[in-house]
Structures are given as C-alpha cells and as structure tokens.
Design a protein that fits this description.
By secondary structure, the protein is α+β, with helices and mostly antiparallel strands. The protein is built from five helices and eleven strands; from the N terminus they run αβααββββαββββαββ. β2 and β3 form a beta hairpin. About 4% of the residues have low confidence.
Length: 232
C-alpha cells in the first residue's frame, strides 16, 4: 500500500471513529506507534482538525465532529435513495492531491466566486437557480467542478470543463454546517458507513454531487447543500 493510499484510508477512519488512540490505529494499519504518530501529524498539517487529550483515557479526536443538520441518530446523516437520469455539468475545475485539505478549502470557495462572475456564459442551463458541485476522488487525486447542469455539452466556455454523468442511483443526504472540506468529509464518511450497514455499495469511480437549490445557498455565502453519493 502506498503512503498516499494509507493516508487516504487513515483520513476516512479518523472521521468515522471521532475518537481513537495512536496505539489502536498503529495495530489496525500494521505500522509502529511512532510511524502512526508521524501520520497523524501529517494529517493535522494537511488540515484535518485533530486534537489530543492527555491522561489514562486520553487519545485523539476530530475537532468539531458533530451531527449534520438533517435529522438522524447518533450523528448519522439521514439518507434517501433516488435515481438520477443522465445529465451534463459545465463549470470551473480544480485538481489537487486528495490529502491537500487546506488547499481545497482555499480554492473551492474561490472557484465558486469565479463561477458567479462567469455563470452568464453558460448556454442552456437546466435551472439557473441551481448550482452543482461535481466531486471525484479517484486514487490520490481530488477533482472538483463548480458549475451548473446544462442541456448539452455542445458549447463549453473557454477555461471551463464539461462532463457527462450517466443515469445512476444515488444515496442523498443534506449537509448543514460549515463549508469546509473536513466538515463535508466527516459527514460523507459517516454516510458511507451507514450505506454499508444498509447493504448499499458506494461507487468510488463515479462523480459525486453537491447541489445548492437557490442562488446564495452555496459557498461562500451559505452552508446547506444536498450530497449525492453514487451507488453501484
């Protein structure tokens, strides 16, 4: 397993657990205690909000880990399953290493600010009031497109990207909280755990979606959005 892959899996685990010790994680990942401490320090440097607690019952936790705005139990997102027909998304794209949480936090809001200035260039938007963020984490790469759903990809403005999304089933929940990647990732990883417990399987190769239903709802002005997790 590469170091990047191990850090990706470790990020998922710390958000799912909320509280843990370096000894527990070292045993689970098959590395030494000192190596795990170094990994946790790297995650912290990349923007994962870890804190430590001293004493016999001490360990580590994720700062600000709390239940999302949608109703659920024990901090779990409230999921619903739905089917989306094939669609197209056009927008401004960023690409960054998966572990670069701080970089994503800086760039994604700026991407949306640029989108607001250029959204009039989009030909034939399906709903001008709805904004769509397309997210794909494949291997070590994190891709994000800030844009809108369009009727076709025949016209893609200069400097923008266009993608085709096939007809697909999704698990959907509402994220209501700070629009920081660590907050969205924390809710996302808890949703993945709930998917597995309900016998549904995430499709990691497909694009996920963040949908903001009205102007002013999205970053950097607002916090509420619907998260679409692609299913196999």
């Amino acid at each position: 397993m590469t170091k990047t892959r191990r850090l990706m899996e470790l990020t998922a685990v710390v958000y799912e657990r909320g509280r843990f010790t370096a000894d527990e994680l070292a045993a689970e990942f098959g590395v030494s205690y000192r190596t795990m401490l170094r990994y946790l320090q790297e995650l912290s440097g990349l923007g994962v909000p870890l804190y430590s607690e001293v004493g016999r019952s001490g360990g580590y936790g994720v700062l600000g880990r709390r239940s999302p705005g949608a109703a659920g139990t024990a901090g779990e997102p409230l999921l619903k399953k739905l089917f989306r027909p094939a669609s197209f998304v056009v927008g401004l794209e960023m690409t960054a290493p998966f572990t670069a949480v701080s970089l994503s936090n800086a760039i994604v809001p700026e991407l949306w600010a640029q989108w607001e200035m250029r959204s009039a260039e989009i030909a034939r938007p399906v709903d001008p009031r709805t904004r769509v963020g397309a997210v794909r984490s494949r291997g070590p790469e994190y891709r994000y497109i800030a844009g809108a759903e369009v009727a076709s990809l025949r016209v893609v403005p200069d400097g923008m990207a266009g993608i085709e999304l096939p007809a697909k089933a999704y698990a959907v929940y509402r994220h209501d909280g700070a629009y920081r990647r660590e907050d969205r990732d924390g809710t996302y990883f808890r949703a993945l755990e709930k998917l597995r417990s309900n016998g549904m399987e995430h499709d990691p190769d497909a694009w996920g979606l963040e949908i903001f239903r009205s102007a002013g709802d999205g970053p950097p002005d607002g916090t509420e959005c619907e998260i679409y997790i692609p299913l196999k």
